[in-house]
Design a protein that fits this description.
Elements: E1 3-4, E2 13-14, E3 34-38, H1 44-52, H2 58-72, E4 86-87, H3 91-103, E5 115-119, H4 146-153, E6 157-162, E7 175-176, E8 180-181, H5 197-204, E9 210-215, H6 221-227, E10 230-233, E11 253-258, H7 261-271, H8 295-301, E12 308-312, H9 322-340, E13 344-348, H10 391-406, H11 413-424, H12 432-439, H13 449-471, E14 476-480, E15 484-486, E16 489-491, H14 496-502, E17 507-516, E18 522-530, H15 536-550, E19 566-570, E20 586-588, E21 593-597, E22 600-609, E23 617-622, E24 625-627, E25 629-632, E26 635-641, H16 642-645, E27 655-663, E28 669-677
Parallel strand pairs: 5-6, 5-9, 12-13, 12-14
Antiparallel strand pairs: 1-19, 2-3, 3-19, 4-6, 7-8, 9-11, 10-11, 10-17, 14-18, 15-16, 17-18, 20-22, 21-22, 22-26, 23-24, 23-27, 25-26, 27-28
Helix pairs in contact: 2-3, 5-6, 7-8, 7-15, 8-15, 10-11, 10-12
InterPro entries: Amidase_CS, Amidase_dom, AS_sf
Protein name: Amidase
Pfam family, one: Amidase
Length: 687
């Protein structure tokens, strides 16, 4: 069974007791292998090992994250990061299903039983897909987005929705109309980056094991920089965007966000499941290019030996003082790490055709093509701003998304149209010209000739970029993800939006060190790898190799471990995967009791153990804070001094959140999260 860990023995392994005996006396058997599990530093491999050995269940892991959210994420708490404002009410049931399958011998892979969150523009059946808009706070999804379903099929547990910037509008910060400001994982007074700031910060603060963000123009890479995590902006078309509220469909992508690159590769294995109904399914960008596969195997075995990386001239910035200078220094150290691991780093100069404003004839365009294709979805064609997308095309994904949200059986085409118009008309974040296109039925999708020409133009932009890499013998390009940042914003290197978003390329951020933001606030900073179109597997492998060589991920001191997150794993407590799955059952009283012992006000909670239930241990938390529990026959009781949990109780609140985890002698677990009424004698007066 689990035992609390001593002060961190991160991944230490103790092999003892192999001393020889006296003559004729057999040697003592080896003492069990002991390994300290720490939630903050755990990889997917660590989690799956702990689950295989019976030291951790998905129910328990899910509850640990719910406790962290209760302690560190509530807007009224002492930290109040506000990154996961909506929880999936069925999360514990999903976790119990993953545990049951494991006990029955069904292994679904490295994501089985692992909790994750998704940006608030991802549909999930029964929850509102707000996109950060108060107008859509009641837009309840009738289905779950393809990518979430793909992850759930592999056993991952959907924990809830992340906060996002209203209408995905900002790359600097995350403030939604529906949920307010999301806060930085390392300093709550700093911005998170956007628009996937809730996703990034929740991973950086260890409030979820991984998260899904989304990017149209920097919205995964920006928050991943501020959270010091591995954020992956995939090649366009690789992961289905069906079920996501859109922004600009030719640039919208799903972006997995993790603490480690190899874990990101394992998420990518599941997330990139093909989807015939994806908006991209009828679009060809580069003919004959296969979809990437084998993400995890390549990331695990990758090396930097013999690899060559290009740094664009002036992409690092010219300032040597302050935060820009500090970022330059860290980036120089990262380059030295690459070279020490066997790679070559060279400086290269970008030709004009790597900028989206280029108007000349592309080098890779066949000579027999007299009239070059142009980017027909943007006006002018050389713009890099999503707002300049032509009305009929930009409006199309909003129309199709809302149709999928509001259509009921038996609706006529006119009824569906009227519902969509009613939903989109008041959304002023989408300019009137696009809303008018929907109302006037002038939208057009991937089948339109202008779309085909647009992606022909994109193809030659990609091929020009790849020719440039080939001529320089470069495997990938590297940049500091930002050249400068302050408490309220950041600066991206030149060309990175053009190359990554308009050229449909994959890019990934990896922690490379930290910088002093002033007043003693240390924030991580990351390096960005940019690869070839639809060679995402190879790019992630390079990122993983750098991560193994550098080990620069930084743990946030703002959100330290809570009770139960760190424990020792012992081989002695292995639980047979085929043992019957029969989780213990508890009854919880929803009324707390006020007690006063030795002048100390205490809050008591309790309940009963259901008849025939085998319970070996019960653990409890109130708003994420541990509560000692005693078992007395078929009853259980927990008691805590109210002053210990008072900082985590909303002033004037009549309830607190009680989490209960029960475990039986076979290692089966069950959990309950319920609101408990606080006696008036303990309730704090509103401030």
């Amino acid at each position: 069974m689990k035992t609390p860990s001593t002060p961190p023995l991160i991944l230490s392994i103790c092999l003892a007791g192999i001393a020889s005996g006296t003559a004729g006396t057999p040697a003592e058997p080896p003492v069990a292998v002991i390994k300290t599990f720490e939630l903050e530093t755990a990889t997917l491999e660590d989690v799956q090992e702990a689950m295989r050995l019976g030291e951790l269940t998905s129910v328990e892991l899910t509850l640990l994250y719910m406790n962290r959210i209760a302690a560190y994420d509530k807007t009224t708490g002492p930290i109040g990061l506000n990154t996961v404002p909506v929880l999936n009410p069925n999360a514990i049931a999903e976790a119990a299903k993953a545990d049951k399958l494991r006990r029955e011998g069904v292994e679904l892979g490295p994501l089985q039983g692992v909790p994750f969150t998704a940006k608030g523009n991802y549909s999930f059946k029964g929850l509102a897909t707000t996109d950060g808009l108060t107008l859509w706070a009641d837009l309840i999804a009738p289905y779950t987005s393809h990518v979430i379903e793909a992850l759930q099929e592999k056993g991952a547990v959907f924990l809830g929705h992340n906060n996002l910037d209203t209408f995905q509008a900002s790359t600097s910060s995350t403030t939604s109309q529906t949920f307010g400001l999301a806060r930085n994982a390392y300093n709550r007074d700093f911005v998170t980056g956007g628009s996937s700031g809730g996703s990034g910060s929740s991973v950086g603060a260890n409030l979820t094991f991984f998260a899904l963000g989304g990017e149209t123009g920097g919205s995964v890479r920006s928050p991943s920089e501020r959270a010091g995590i591995v954020g992956y902006k995939t090649s366009q078309s690789l992961i289905s965007v069906r079920g996501l509220a859109p922004l600009a469909w030719d640039r919208d992508v799903v972006g997995p966000m993790t603490r480690y690159a190899v874990d990101n590769a394992k998420v990518m294995e599941a997330a990139s499941k093909p989807d015939p109904a994806n908006i991209w399914s009828s679009v060809t960008v580069v003919d004959g290019r296969p979809r990437p596969t084998g993400f995890a195997d390549q990331a695990t075995a990758s090396t930097l030996v013999g690899k060559k990386f290009g740094v664009l001239t002036n992409s690092v910035g010219t300032v040597d003082t302050g935060i820009p200078g500090a970022i330059k220094t860290v980036f120089a150290e990262a380059k030295a790490t690459l070279e020490a691991a066997g790679a070559t780093v060279v400086e290269i100069t970008a030709p004009p055709e790597l900028d989206i404003t280029f108007t000349g004839r592309r080098r890779t365009l066949p000579v027999d093509v007299v009239t070059p294709p142009t980017r027909k979805l943007y006006s002018p064609a050389t713009t890099d701003t999503t707002g300049n997308m032509v009305a009929g095309s930009r409006a199309y994904p909003f129309k199709t998304f809302l149709e999928s949200m509001v259509t009921l059986p038996g609706d006529t085409a006119d009824q569906i149209h009227d519902k969509v118009v009613a939903r989109i008309s008041p959304v002023t974040q989408l300019p009137q010209v696009y809303r008018t296109a929907i109302a006037d039925k002038t939208t057009f999708g991937p089948e339109h000739p202008d779309v085909a020409e647009h992606f022909q133009a994109t193809k030659y932009a990609i091929l020009d970029y790849e020719l440039f890499l080939q001529e320089n013998g470069v495997d990938a390009m590297i940049f500091p993800t930002v050249t400068n940042k302050t408490s309220s914003g950041l600066t991206l290197p030149p060309l990175t939006r053009s190359l990554v978003n308009s050229f449909a390329l994959p890019a990934v951020t990896v922690p490379m060190g930290s910088v002093d933001m002033g007043s003693g606030s240390i924030e991580p900073t990351t390096m960005q790898f940019v690869g070839r179109f639809l060679q995402d597997d190879k790019l992630l492998a390079l990122a993983a190799a750098f991560e193994r060589a550098s080990h620069k991920r930084m743990v946030s001191p703002q959100v330290p471990p809570l009770d139960g997150e760190n424990f020792e794993i012992t081989m002695d407590d292995y639980v047979d995967a085929n043992d019957p799955y029969a989780p213990p059952l508890l009854v919880v009283s929803k009324q707390g009791v006020a007690k006063k012992t030795a002048g100390v006000k205490r809050l008591e909670v309790g309940g009963q153990i259901k008849a025939k239930a085998d319970v070996s241990s019960i653990r409890a938390w109130i708003n994420g804070q541990s509560v000692p529990v005693a078992i007395q026959g078929k009853k259980w009781k927990g008691s805590v001094a109210f002053e210990e949990i008072q900082p985590y109780v909303i002033p004037g609140s009549k309830t607190v959140e009680l989490s209960i985890l029960a475990e039986d002698s076979e290692g089966n677990t069950n959990a309950t999260v319920v609101p408990i009424r606080v006696p008036k004698s303990l309730t704090l007066a509103p401030k």
